[in-house]
Predict the structure.
Amino acid sequence: MKKHKRPRSSSVTWLAGAAVLFVGLALAPTGVGAYDLASIRDIMLFALFAVSLDLFWGRTGILSFGHATFFGIGAYGMAIATVKLGLPAGIGSIVGLGLGTALAALLAFGVGYFLIRGGVRGAYFTITTLALSLIAQQTAVGWSSVTGGDSGLIGVPALGYGELQLTDPIAQFYVVWGVLLTVSLGAWAVLRGRHGLVLKMIEDNEVKAETMGYSTSLYLIGLFTLSATVAALAGALYATMTGFVAPDMLGLILSTEVIMWVATGGRGLILGAIVGTIVVSELQQRISSIDTKLWPMFMGLFFIAMVFLFPDGLLSVVWRVGALLRRDKANGEVRR
Amino acid sequence: MTASPLLRTQSLSRRFGGLLAVDDVSIDLARGEIHCIVGPNGAGKSTLLNMVCGTIAPSSGRILFEQRDIVGLTKRRIARLGIARKFQAPSVFGSLTVRQNLEVAADGPAGAGKVADIDDILRRIELTTVADKPASLLAHGQKQWLEVGMALATAPRLLLLDEPTAGMTTDETAKTAALVRLLRGEVTVLAIEHDMGFVRALACETIVMHQGRVIASGSFESIAANDVVRDVYLGRGSNA
């Protein structure tokens, strides 16, 4: 049996998988109707959101249970700039994009600074971020003069700059496709290098990394801020394409769902976050169309099954099968 | 004029509630020498080590490294000054390969690229053949050596070893002693050890602690002949 160099072969496998996925998505506009196209576009935005969570949770093992806060802030930033402040269409959505992502980044940096530098890790971090999601949702409901309260804000215009307005559904689809591809590839490229190594060290043993002189808190705060910024970007784009924002965009349910998407695909794999989002969203649509009451029940069972059968996510099947094949091959050679 | 000690503690104490874990400890570590701290469980050895590397703050007293007080500095600052620490439980990065473990130590802020020859360290800790395996697959003793190697990869001035032979077989202990002995003159070493065989093999400066205090110090031979030390180890002293 040939000697296997694991890192190389696995990155080739993942790149090939990603290529197939993205080419498949790119072909979608040729084969599906307007409704399905919009729904695939939304799923890609949720996939971007899932990638943002995976950037932090997947790399550090620290779970943020309030990540919808940042998605929602991105969406609300966009809606407030365009609907409430009434900025002209030519620059409104650019300002909204800046406002949403900047607010999310600022909040993540502030929260990260106090929690992470204060030594809050593990379950404590998870619980605190869960509270963050609740606070954000209550604020959106209560501060109705700015946020529109329970009913949210409607009439968010399409993304645009000057004369250019992104209203064509196919153009919207490709913009989202391009953003998802760029962020995924960028994250993959950065995390393969030295930064990824430091994050692995932090996940393995943060105290040890610190005694080797690494500024682990700084790394974690930076990554958390980056992750929140990407989540806000997804939220802001989502608002421009669906045209509205509502308090459940920064609530607990969305925070939980995004965790499930990432866990389904496989934590720590960017491709896993995307595949997980697609699989779960598809299932949700199919099952809810039979009966809306079925979905929560199915979701619970599905999640339990996942934990027992594929604790490392659906994509772990790839390397499990690979390992089986290699073993069979090795056995065959021994017999001969 | 004799050279100043690399590390000096002055009346160092640490209190945990009602317990005085380290009580008025003043020690000097001579440059390039190997030093062992021995003593029964609860003698305050680990607490002393933790104060030197910044994980526990002293209740009172001073720690001078190169005549500079390092009390209150962060773990990272202390690491960057050249104090490396090997933990009692093996602390290596399991998902990184053996070589990567050494590289992140050598290239990190504490190492700052002072050590370029990773292969040399691999040879010294006898892990060359498993260099590209994930560290999580190593045997217990190999993990301990890897961690010593990671400390060496940062080219430290002072190497703190917390029970380097814990859980090792007799053979592995002998190998560890040989590895540490070779460091004499290159690095100043302060090791906590239970295993008197290991300390004997090193024939080093020995500090005996009991109930937070230093009760004896000197060469290993003088310590081995010391009646008070025998009492502590045989349990005839006061019951802690």
Summary: Chain A touches chain B at residues 197-198, 200-201, 203-205, 207-215 (CB under 8 Å). Strands of chain A lie at 153-154, 160-161, 164-165, 244-245. The radius of gyration of chain A is 21 Å.
